[in-house]
Amino acid sequence: MSPKPFYLTTPIYYVNSVPHLGTAYTTIAADALARYRRMTGDDVFFLTGLDEHGQKVAQAADEHGMSPQEWCDSIAPRFLETWELLDISNDDFIRTTQERHKRGVQAFWTKLHDEGYLYKGAYEGWYCVPDETFHAEDQLVDGKCPGCGRDVEFIREENWFFKLSEFAQPLLEFYATREAEGRPFIRPETRRNEVVSFVEGGLKDLSISRTTFSWGVPLPFADNHVTYVWIDALLNYITAVGYGSDDPADAARFERYWPAQVHFVGKDIIRFHCVIWPAMLMAAGLPLPDSVFAHGFLLTKGEKMSKSKGNAVSPAELAARFGVDAYRYYFLRDVQFGADGSISMEAMVQRINGDLANDWGNLCSRLFNMVGKYFDGRVPDANGAGEEEADAAVRAVADSLPARYEAAMTAFDYAGALEATWDLIKATNRYIEESAPWNLAKSDETRARLAAVLYTALEAVRVAALFCAPVMPRTSAEVWRRMSLGDIGAVTDIEAAAKWGQLPSDNPVEKGDPLFPRIDKDAE
Ligand code: MSP
Question: Which of 53, 78, 220, 446 might form a disulfide with 216, Cβ 3.0–4.6 angstroms?
Answer without folding.
Answer: 53
